[in-house]
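During the no-cost extension, the postdoctoral fellow (Dr. R.K.) reprocessed legacy sequence entries with the updated structure-token encoder. One reprocessed record is reproduced below for audit purposes.
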Amino acid sequence: MIVRSSDRLRAAEEVLSQLREELGAIGVTLPSLRVDPISLASDDPYPLIDLGRCNLDTAMRLTAVLHGVPR
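Re-encoded structure tokens follow.
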């Protein structure tokens, strides 16, 4: 099955939006969160989401939230 690049981008942007919203709900903002443009150009069915860089405070908050998630 061939997935068109517009469909791949739309799917990635939808997931990106949901991820940004969920992270925001727990007080975590990743300022560099984006769709990776290089992976979007590849033949993989779905592009990568680049979580990007964040400051120490954001990393500590994200770690605290993940620590509370049952495994």
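The chain has one domain: 5-67. The chain has a mean pLDDT of 86. The remaining legacy entries will be reprocessed before the final report is submitted.
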